[in-house]
Amino acid sequence: MCFRNFFKSKLQQKLQTPEISGNNQNQHGSVHEEEAKKIENNINIGEEKTDMQTDEKDKTTNDSKDSTTSLKQSGNNKGKPVDLPEEMPFIDGNRRGRVIAIANQKGGVGKSTTAVNLSGFLGELGYRTLIIDFDPQSNSTSGLGVDKNQINKSIYEVIILNENPWSSIIQSPYKNLYIIASSIQLAGAEVELVSAMKREYKLKQAIDKLKDSFDFIIIDCPPALGLLTINALTAAGEVLIPIQCEYYALEGLGQLINTINLIKENLNEKLKITGVVMTMYDSRTKLSEQVIEEVKAYFPEKVYGTIIPRNVRLSEAPSYGKPIIDYDPGCKGAVAYKKLTEEVIKNEPE
Ligand SMILES: Nc1ncnc2c1ncn2[C@@H]1O[C@H](COP(=O)(O)OP(=O)(O)O)[C@@H](O)[C@H]1O
Ligand SMILES: [Mg+2]
């Protein structure tokens, strides 16, 4: 193994250890001040690079322009060309182009479950939807039954190697639902991005090429506030925050809101919190009720009316590689995600 690869694989191993990837925040949500400074620093440094960034942007755009047509047909899963049917009916006359990042630096709060099931219902309701799995753990990739060994190109190649995003789109088996898969290489992307020009805008540059062709682009974020999540929040117009109904629910939220505000000030002034969804509600405990009240006080007007219950069918579905709409469309979890989807469609922030 050459030195560079050795070094890279070591870094990848390190990134999977909790204290570096940010996963240590998962359990209690406490975030170091140092981490906060790092995020602030990431955002500020990014701002200073304007001239060179523009050059690189032009280069990327030209590279991809050359190959768009062929790549549109070659991105595939199991040999199936991704062919977005031009005749597909537009709801309301044009594509909505809503880009929604599902973010919370805590792990296990229901980000991937929400991303997969929201996307599944959006597709079912007739909206052309793309889910971008932006977490190296690839939970939404596997949750949609995409075989990791059959992925030609993942989001890693798009943001790090500047591959045309069209070449990485996979058609899912579900109606109107497309996916750009993740891969474990993405774990190293945080480090690789540090020296990249325009590093906070990598995902945005890719999404800007796709936006007009989709009604919804849903980004499943990793459980950390590093450069990947910063990329997602820079690319998105909206952020949807899942919060688990548990004792530590509010811990770490301040840090998330700070990050969102910093991104609004420095990288993406259009970013809006589209809504907060309470997940894993347990009607047998008083605690769930109290947590919802606290979160409502923290985010006035932002908490969706639909509460996602703790439902065993929702937790089983990913192991079959199916969204709930396919696995058990009649279960409580499915009914709740359908209602949430309708709320998301209706409440587009201005
Ligand atoms: N409403 C729910 N009811 C029961 N289990 C759930 C529910 N939502 C998520 N889970 C399970 O909880 C775990 C964490 O959810 P996940 O969506 O992967 O969280 P995150 O993406 O935030 O890390 C998974 O095993 C998932 O199947
Ligand atoms: Mg996840």
Number of strands: 9
| Class by SSE composition | alpha/beta
Strand order of the largest sheet: 5-6-4-7-3-8-9
Report helical residue fraction.
40-55%
Cα separation of the termini:
52 Å
Number of folding domains? 1
Which whole number gives the mean pLDDT?
A: 80
Estimated share of beta-strand residues: 5-15%
CATH architecture: 3-Layer(aba) Sandwich
Instruction: Name the shape in a single word.
Output: globular
- List segments where confidence is low: pLDDT < 50 over at least 5 consecutive residues: 1-33, 44-81
The sequence of SSEs as H and E is: HHHHHEEEHEHHEEHHEHEHEHHHH
Q: Keyphrases for this structure?
A:
alpha/beta; Rossmann fold; seven-stranded mixed sheet; two-stranded antiparallel ribbon; 16 helices; 9 strands; disordered N terminus; binds magnesium ion
Fold topology:
Layout: H1 3-15, H2 18-21, H3 25-28, H4 33-47, H5 50-74, E1 76-77, E2 80-81, E3 98-102, H6 111-124, E4 129-133, H7 139-143, H8 155-160, E5 169-171, E6 177-180, H9 186-194, H10 202-210, E7 216-220, H11 227-235, E8 238-244, H12 253-266, E9 272-279, H13 286-298, H14 312-316, H15 324-327, H16 332-346
Parallel strand pairs: 3-7, 3-8, 4-6, 4-7, 8-9
Antiparallel strand pairs: 1-2, 5-6
The structure holds adenosine-5'-diphosphate and magnesium ion.
